[in-house]
């Protein structure tokens, strides 16, 4: 007996260590026995005895989460219920009824007695279990939930696979009455895009025209298609309300709002492919031909390529012609029109590789003043049209257009094959592309987030705040009438220093946490928006009872003062500007924000931290508006004058350079020094034009003097910090350098350390380094202006290849009165010399200052001790006089 027991134990151990794969699988995964009744769409066996259907595929996926293998038994419901009661099967598949819009349906109607149900999901059906063996129900429910969490789109994919038919068209009496009273709808379609949409013999043709016929047939109305020759004028008609509808409008709600339109559900997906030349490879930086007024140009192409690579044309046909002529290297067209565009135009040197570059959906656009019932009717029609019908329309129209190709194009495309075979291949390619590619991105949501959120912290931005401000003020109208509303702007002091010390990511997270704390503690902060650079926050506030505006601002400052950074409480100081919201006047959100910003700017550089907008600031704002009114005229009519202030070699007292300074002699405003307008121009961007003007004038006079063999010296010109983010800046500078071809380092660019570069991210650091290197490669030398006045001096020295260090006058004045400051000045000068930089100190006014700087080892000086700024003619006259000596 013991021998037999040992033999059995050995056999069991052998089976445990050396199992057959099939036996192991059977042992580890018990069977899930399933009863079903053949139901088309839910579960059935095809001619090959393979199972199909939404419920079948879902249960197969479900079984892996239940760790079961499946076994199916076919029969009627009565037979399956008997099997369930007898225990020969574990569950019964109960098909869903007609597809419904209800999001939940807890149990099927007429639930058989003695059973419980577990829903698989809307339109997938239920599983019936014996109520005496209900222990599997929670396991199945948990597995269904897990599948929904892992792949939320799985159910949708199954339904699309097995239920891709249109819904029945059911119109309400109200909707039918509307169609009866509005039998004609004025419509336009995109022109010149065969076979997508085009005109032939005065009639609309193509895919969109066929969809129009289908809509007319289903709704028993007339869509009166009005001819138009360009996309731009068609969009203008829609925007102006001249027509009722555009049949093929890009599915983008922001685009629709911009043209005063509402959208239906999308009914078509368009894929776009590239068209290039065969006779040359695509360059690394290709020139792209773009249709100016088309949505996809702005949505996709302008984001894919830099501005300097884009060339704009009226429509797609002009873009194709531009690539064929060699004016551009590439353009993008609809995949269904690409081959037709090439061969109808006889562009045999062009080709498309068929790779889809981007896609978008197409809807019908209705002018927003139309009765909303029309949108509801058309939405029903869109869901009624079978997607397969759309595919058939596309295939038919593509074939018809290609059948009209010239004999020359047919021979060129098919030298060895018959026309029928070529058309068949083309249709297969198009069908394959349509099946293979689908639109997977929600463009509307993405656009909204980009426009209204600071993505790095997930907070509303200034754009959102500007749009929301009038609505919020209207909502709190009672508080406004009482004079309790005000707009506040808050920004941390020493911003560049804080970002450099803590890092931009950590700084951004701390700002977000601080704002959450402040708004939680101060419920009277009604709305707020953060700048994209995370430098300041605008708020709409309601003045608390018993507090003045200043006291309310002090509450904000107090609650935002302590910021926890990386677990360490850190004290921040702020500048705050306030502007009360008028009680009665019309609301201009931008003006209120500008007023608050002006109040903040007024206190920068003082010992105050809170500024409130008042009448003096209002007068200054009016003065600024006057300056802005005449600035373009002043630049166009030569009112801006360039003066040069000489730079002197401290060792020889000879002129070794000059700085270009701007003056404005305005007939309307009088003579203005830079301190009256430069800060304003920095804010409104006009300083960019002024910088280019000064640079051009300096390059022009230097070029003329070189041609006339007259003496020249290096001249420095200021460059605003706005240039670093200006599109096409390097291209413009290269154009100027190529135009004058001056000797290297004859023109110096002064980059102000406190305004030109604020190191906020590694990307901006790299961008600044790339820009400075490119400028040096063009022949410009680079000067670090106002050195030692900001917080990023060492960072600029470390990161940027500067040639000249220009130390601010404040450092010199400090060194005169403090041994400590003198030591720092000497060390800074020595540091510049050790970095092979020329060191210049500005603001020298006394002989004692000159002697101090010479003793410290400074190269070059600038100031009233040597020369005042003078007009260019006077400066060069003195330079010529010195040369003759």
Automatic annotation (TrEMBL):
Gene3D superfamilies assigned? EAL domain, Periplasmic binding protein-like II
Look up the signal peptide feature and give its range.
Answer: none
**Keyword annotations of the record:** Membrane, Transmembrane, Transmembrane helix
Q: PROSITE patterns in the record, alphabetically?
A: EAL
A Pfam family the protein falls into: SBP_bac_3
Q: Where are the transmembrane segments?
A: 416-437
GO MF terms on file? cyclic-guanylate-specific phosphodiesterase activity
Which SMART domains does the UniProt record give? EAL, PBPb
Start and end of every EAL domain? 624-883
Protein's recorded name: EAL domain, c-di-GMP-specific phosphodiesterase class I (Or its enzymatically inactive variant)
Upper taxonomic classification of the species?
Bacteria, Bacillati, Bacillota, Negativicutes, Selenomonadales
